[in-house]
Protein backbone atom coordinates (compact mmCIF):
# COMPACT_ATOMS: atom_id res chain seq x y z
CA UNK A 1 0.00 0.00 0.00
CA UNK A 2 0.82 3.72 0.09
CA UNK A 3 1.99 4.02 -3.49
CA UNK A 4 2.97 7.36 -4.97
CA UNK A 5 3.16 7.52 -8.75
CA UNK A 6 5.09 10.23 -10.57
CA UNK A 7 4.98 10.98 -14.27
CA UNK A 8 6.90 11.38 -16.48
CA UNK A 9 10.01 9.62 -15.29
CA UNK A 10 12.16 11.45 -17.76
CA UNK A 11 11.65 14.57 -19.87
CA UNK A 12 13.82 16.64 -22.17
CA UNK A 13 12.65 20.08 -23.17
CA UNK A 14 14.01 23.19 -24.84
CA UNK A 15 14.84 26.39 -23.03
CA UNK A 16 11.84 28.63 -22.64
CA UNK A 17 9.24 25.91 -22.64
CA UNK A 18 7.21 24.70 -19.68
CA UNK A 19 7.08 21.21 -18.27
CA UNK A 20 4.43 19.66 -16.08
CA UNK A 21 5.15 16.84 -13.65
CA UNK A 22 2.33 14.87 -12.05
CA UNK A 23 2.31 13.21 -8.67
CA UNK A 24 -0.50 10.87 -7.69
CA UNK A 25 -1.29 8.99 -4.53
CA UNK A 26 -2.72 5.75 -5.87
CA UNK A 27 -4.26 4.11 -2.83
CA UNK A 28 -4.68 6.88 -0.31
CA UNK A 29 -5.78 10.45 -0.10
CA UNK A 30 -3.16 13.09 0.45
CA UNK A 31 -4.14 16.54 1.62
CA UNK A 32 -0.47 17.42 1.63
CA UNK A 33 2.26 16.50 -0.83
CA UNK A 34 5.86 17.57 -0.86
CA UNK A 35 8.08 18.42 -3.80
CA UNK A 36 11.81 17.89 -3.55
CA UNK A 37 14.67 18.68 -5.86
CA UNK A 38 17.86 16.69 -5.96
CA UNK A 39 21.07 17.76 -7.68
CA UNK A 40 23.55 15.08 -8.77
CA UNK A 41 25.14 13.31 -5.84
CA UNK A 42 23.44 15.61 -3.35
CA UNK A 43 20.66 15.38 -0.86
CA UNK A 44 17.01 16.20 -1.35
CA UNK A 45 16.02 19.81 -0.88
CA UNK A 46 12.41 20.57 -0.06
CA UNK A 47 11.01 23.01 -2.59
CA UNK A 48 7.42 23.35 -1.50
CA UNK A 49 4.52 21.84 0.36
CA UNK A 50 1.47 21.31 -1.80
CA UNK A 51 -1.86 21.76 -0.03
CA UNK A 52 -5.09 20.41 -1.47
CA UNK A 53 -7.50 23.20 -2.27
CA UNK A 54 -5.18 26.02 -1.23
CA UNK A 55 -1.92 27.68 -2.14
CA UNK A 56 1.34 25.84 -1.87
CA UNK A 57 3.89 26.82 0.73
CA UNK A 58 7.29 27.48 -0.79
CA UNK A 59 10.62 27.16 0.95
CA UNK A 60 12.89 30.14 1.16
CA UNK A 61 14.68 30.83 -2.09
CA UNK A 62 12.25 28.88 -4.29
CA UNK A 63 10.57 31.02 -6.94
CA UNK A 64 6.84 30.43 -6.78
CA UNK A 65 6.30 31.91 -10.24
CA UNK A 66 8.92 29.60 -11.66
CA UNK A 67 7.67 26.43 -10.02
CA UNK A 68 3.89 26.42 -10.15
CA UNK A 69 2.16 23.91 -7.92
CA UNK A 70 -1.44 22.87 -8.18
CA UNK A 71 -3.12 20.42 -5.83
CA UNK A 72 -6.63 20.25 -7.19
CA UNK A 73 -7.67 16.91 -5.75
CA UNK A 74 -6.83 14.64 -2.84
CA UNK A 75 -4.82 12.34 -5.08
CA UNK A 76 -3.07 14.65 -7.54
CA UNK A 77 -0.50 17.40 -7.29
CA UNK A 78 1.30 18.91 -10.25
CA UNK A 79 4.54 20.84 -10.51
CA UNK A 80 5.01 23.00 -13.58
CA UNK A 81 8.46 24.33 -14.34
CA UNK A 82 7.77 27.48 -16.34
CA UNK A 83 10.11 28.98 -18.91
CA UNK A 84 12.63 26.30 -18.19
CA UNK A 85 16.36 27.00 -18.38
CA UNK A 86 19.33 24.62 -18.33
CA UNK A 87 19.92 25.39 -14.65
CA UNK A 88 16.49 23.92 -13.91
CA UNK A 89 17.78 20.54 -15.04
CA UNK A 90 17.52 18.30 -12.03
CA UNK A 91 15.80 15.31 -10.46
CA UNK A 92 12.41 16.23 -9.03
CA UNK A 93 10.74 13.92 -6.52
CA UNK A 94 7.32 14.15 -4.95
CA UNK A 95 6.15 12.53 -1.76
CA UNK A 96 3.11 12.14 0.44
CA UNK A 97 2.08 10.32 3.59
CA UNK A 98 -1.09 8.30 4.07
CA UNK A 99 -1.42 9.11 7.75
CA UNK A 100 -0.38 11.81 10.15
CA UNK A 101 2.56 12.70 12.31
CA UNK A 102 4.82 9.67 12.48
CA UNK A 103 3.52 8.10 9.31
CA UNK A 104 6.50 8.00 6.94
CA UNK A 105 6.64 9.78 3.63
CA UNK A 106 6.28 7.68 0.52
CA UNK A 107 8.09 8.84 -2.57
CA UNK A 108 7.46 8.77 -6.26
CA UNK A 109 10.19 7.44 -8.53
CA UNK A 110 11.23 10.93 -9.53
CA UNK A 111 11.39 12.87 -12.77
CA UNK A 112 14.68 13.56 -14.49
CA UNK A 113 14.33 16.94 -16.22
CA UNK A 114 16.89 17.97 -18.82
CA UNK A 115 16.60 21.42 -20.35
CA UNK A 116 18.59 21.92 -23.53
CA UNK B 1 15.31 23.75 13.72
CA UNK B 2 16.06 20.09 13.29
CA UNK B 3 18.90 18.66 11.32
CA UNK B 4 20.75 15.42 10.71
CA UNK B 5 24.40 14.89 9.98
CA UNK B 6 25.62 11.85 8.12
CA UNK B 7 29.29 11.18 8.70
CA UNK B 8 30.98 9.82 5.64
CA UNK B 9 29.65 10.60 2.20
CA UNK B 10 31.04 7.31 0.94
CA UNK B 11 31.42 3.96 2.67
CA UNK B 12 32.90 0.86 1.11
CA UNK B 13 32.57 -2.63 2.59
CA UNK B 14 33.26 -6.14 1.39
CA UNK B 15 30.39 -8.47 0.70
CA UNK B 16 29.51 -10.25 3.94
CA UNK B 17 31.01 -7.54 6.14
CA UNK B 18 29.22 -5.37 8.66
CA UNK B 19 27.57 -2.24 7.34
CA UNK B 20 27.56 0.83 9.59
CA UNK B 21 26.20 4.13 8.34
CA UNK B 22 26.29 6.97 10.82
CA UNK B 23 23.62 9.56 11.53
CA UNK B 24 23.48 12.15 14.29
CA UNK B 25 20.52 14.39 14.81
CA UNK B 26 19.94 17.77 16.34
CA UNK B 27 16.56 18.53 17.82
CA UNK B 28 15.23 20.34 20.85
CA UNK B 29 12.65 17.61 21.41
CA UNK B 30 12.75 13.90 20.63
CA UNK B 31 12.16 13.68 16.91
CA UNK B 32 10.94 11.08 14.51
CA UNK B 33 13.85 9.55 12.61
CA UNK B 34 13.94 7.66 9.35
CA UNK B 35 16.36 5.89 7.05
CA UNK B 36 15.66 5.80 3.34
CA UNK B 37 17.50 4.08 0.48
CA UNK B 38 17.75 5.41 -3.06
CA UNK B 39 18.80 3.39 -6.07
CA UNK B 40 20.02 5.25 -9.19
CA UNK B 41 17.39 7.37 -10.90
CA UNK B 42 14.68 6.28 -8.50
CA UNK B 43 12.76 7.74 -5.63
CA UNK B 44 13.35 6.88 -2.00
CA UNK B 45 12.28 3.71 -0.25
CA UNK B 46 11.72 3.62 3.48
CA UNK B 47 14.05 1.24 5.31
CA UNK B 48 12.89 1.88 8.87
CA UNK B 49 11.61 4.54 11.24
CA UNK B 50 11.88 5.50 14.90
CA UNK B 51 8.83 7.04 16.52
CA UNK B 52 9.56 6.56 20.23
CA UNK B 53 8.57 2.96 20.71
CA UNK B 54 11.48 0.51 20.90
CA UNK B 55 14.89 2.14 20.57
CA UNK B 56 16.17 -0.70 18.39
CA UNK B 57 14.25 -0.60 15.16
CA UNK B 58 14.28 -3.37 12.60
CA UNK B 59 13.64 -2.58 8.97
CA UNK B 60 13.53 -4.22 5.62
CA UNK B 61 16.39 -6.07 3.90
CA UNK B 62 18.02 -6.97 7.21
CA UNK B 63 18.78 -3.41 8.26
CA UNK B 64 18.30 -2.07 11.75
CA UNK B 65 19.03 1.14 13.62
CA UNK B 66 19.31 2.05 17.28
CA UNK B 67 18.11 5.33 18.71
CA UNK B 68 20.56 6.58 21.35
CA UNK B 69 19.35 9.73 23.01
CA UNK B 70 22.53 10.23 25.01
CA UNK B 71 24.55 10.25 21.81
CA UNK B 72 21.86 11.88 19.62
CA UNK B 73 22.53 9.12 17.14
CA UNK B 74 20.54 6.84 14.91
CA UNK B 75 23.15 4.72 13.12
CA UNK B 76 22.09 2.20 10.50
CA UNK B 77 23.58 -1.29 10.57
CA UNK B 78 23.39 -4.58 8.74
CA UNK B 79 25.37 -7.62 9.91
CA UNK B 80 26.31 -8.87 6.46
CA UNK B 81 26.44 -6.72 3.34
CA UNK B 82 25.10 -7.95 0.04
CA UNK B 83 25.95 -6.65 -3.40
CA UNK B 84 22.36 -5.50 -3.81
CA UNK B 85 22.79 -3.14 -0.84
CA UNK B 86 24.90 -0.79 -2.93
CA UNK B 87 22.91 2.44 -3.05
CA UNK B 88 22.59 5.90 -1.52
CA UNK B 89 21.27 6.01 2.03
CA UNK B 90 19.61 9.02 3.61
CA UNK B 91 18.89 9.69 7.24
CA UNK B 92 15.96 12.04 7.84
CA UNK B 93 14.29 13.77 10.76
CA UNK B 94 10.89 15.28 11.29
CA UNK B 95 9.22 16.95 14.20
CA UNK B 96 6.29 15.56 16.08
CA UNK B 97 3.70 17.80 14.51
CA UNK B 98 0.28 16.34 14.16
CA UNK B 99 -1.33 16.25 10.77
CA UNK B 100 0.12 15.34 7.43
CA UNK B 101 2.21 18.45 6.89
CA UNK B 102 5.16 17.51 9.05
CA UNK B 103 8.28 18.06 6.96
CA UNK B 104 11.24 15.78 6.54
CA UNK B 105 14.76 17.14 6.64
CA UNK B 106 17.35 14.94 4.99
CA UNK B 107 21.00 14.40 5.64
CA UNK B 108 23.50 14.71 2.83
CA UNK B 109 23.46 11.00 2.13
CA UNK B 110 25.99 8.18 2.26
CA UNK B 111 26.85 6.16 -0.80
CA UNK B 112 27.41 2.53 0.12
CA UNK B 113 29.70 0.52 -2.11
CA UNK B 114 29.89 -3.25 -1.71
CA UNK B 115 32.89 -5.04 -3.13
CA UNK B 116 33.59 -8.71 -3.73
Written description of the protein model:
The complex is a heterodimer of chains A (116) and B (116). In chain A, strand 7 (67-73) and strand 8 form a beta hairpin. Chain A has no helices and 11 strands. The termini of chain A are far apart. Chain A has strands at residues 4-7, 10-13, 19-25, 32-38, 44-51, 57-58, 67-73, 76-81, 90-96, 106-107, 111-115. Chain B is an all-beta fold. Chain B has no helices and 12 strands. In chain B, the strands form 3 sheets. In chain B, strands 2, 5, 6, 10, 11 and 12 form a 6-stranded mixed beta sheet that branches. Chain B has a 4-stranded antiparallel beta sheet with strand order 3-9-8-7, with no helix packed on it. The model of chain B has no long low-confidence stretch (mean pLDDT 90). At the A-B interface, strand 5, strand 9 and strand 10 of A face strand 5, strand 6 and strand 11 of B.
- Overall spatial form of chain B: globular
Spatial gap, N to C terminus of chain B: 41 Å
Average of pLDDT of chain B: 90
Helix-strand category of chain A: mainly beta
Q: What pattern of helices and strands is seen along the backbone of chain B? A: EEEEEEEEEEEE
Please tell me the overall pLDDT of chain A.
Answer: 91
Quaternary structure classification: heterodimer
Sum up the overall morphology of chain A in one term.
globular
CA radius of gyration of chain A is: 13 Å
Biggest sheet details of chain A: 7 strands, mixed
Structural class computed from helices and strand pairing of chain B: mainly beta
User: Which range best describes the helical content of chain A: under 10%, 10-25%, 25-40%, 40-55%, 55-70% or over 70%?
Assistant: under 10%
Helix and strand pattern of chain A: EEEEEEEEEEE
**Backbone CA Rg of chain B:** 14 Å
Low-confidence stretches of chain B: none
What fraction strand of chain A?
A: over 45%
What amount of the residues of chain B lies in strands?
over 45%
Distance between the termini of chain A: 37 Å
